[in-house]
Description:
The chain is α/β, with parallel strands linked by helices. The chain is built from nine helices and eleven strands. It binds adenosine-5'-diphosphate and magnesium ion.
Amino acid sequence: MDKVDSSLSPQEHSQANEAICKVEAASKSYPQGDASVEALRSVGLSIKTGAFVAVMGASGSGKSTLLHLIAGLTSPTGGSVVVDGVDLSTLSDAALTRFRRERIGLIFQSFNLVPALNASNNILLPLMAGGMKDDRSANVKELASRLGIDHRLEHRPDSLSGGEQQRVAIARALITEPAVLLADEPTGSLDSTTGQSICKLLRDLCDQQGRTIILVTHEPSVAVWADQVVVLKDGQIIEEFPACEFQDAQSLAAHYQEILDEGLPSPQAVASTN
Ligand SMILES: Nc1ncnc2c1ncn2[C@@H]1O[C@H](COP(=O)(O)OP(=O)(O)O)[C@@H](O)[C@H]1O
Ligand SMILES: [Mg+2]
């Protein structure tokens, strides 16, 4: 049975729930030999519809794991993840796949476009995978125009710049009108000017269209574009603060460094299971 279906449409779910994403006491451990790596330890996070949240932390602090839990790409070993009113643990594999395709937009550092397809068909991929019934080329054109890539739709990824490729990936993530847009280090492969233009684009999508965005980054110059910053250290949230408290990336960077230096005493990252 498809457990995504209910009396409420996904859009009605969004409106009924102020928090579009709720992570409660979520833990994730990975087996490693006789021990386990605790990538996340009892993480709690509530994200309101239309918010732009940056998750910061050093490499290995659990940022991608947190994003993957919210995306339903992996399941927590403890706690719960509710997105768009749906507790992901209640979904069958087939329903989870459908939920991911329809309600989650995901973009990555490496763009992950299909090299053999032009930009237009890359953008259409999630709809094709879902068995697209009607011609959506008008939707692609409109979205591409909003993202500034309408003149590049016939081009394959290898003839697009990095910034253009990421815009195509953002269009692909948005074509299904997802409940949340998740971005894992989306500027990590771009020069700083192009990276900033992608940040501005994400900010505009939030301000002008009410998109909910959860972005993972270790760069203060990226996090400063968000509304709220969440800092992870050794799999735990050690601080949350509004980005608007900081005038620029430099002052946010100084605060971030203070948090990392003074954060909770680091528990052992590798805990024995027996
Ligand atoms: N699939 C996996 N198997 C084993 N360990 C993993 C796996 N994914 C992540 N980890 C470990 O979990 C911790 C957090 O990783 P990750 O979430 O990728 O951190 P970040 O994105 O902040 O760099 C790291 O110690 C990493 O090695
Ligand atoms: Mg990562």
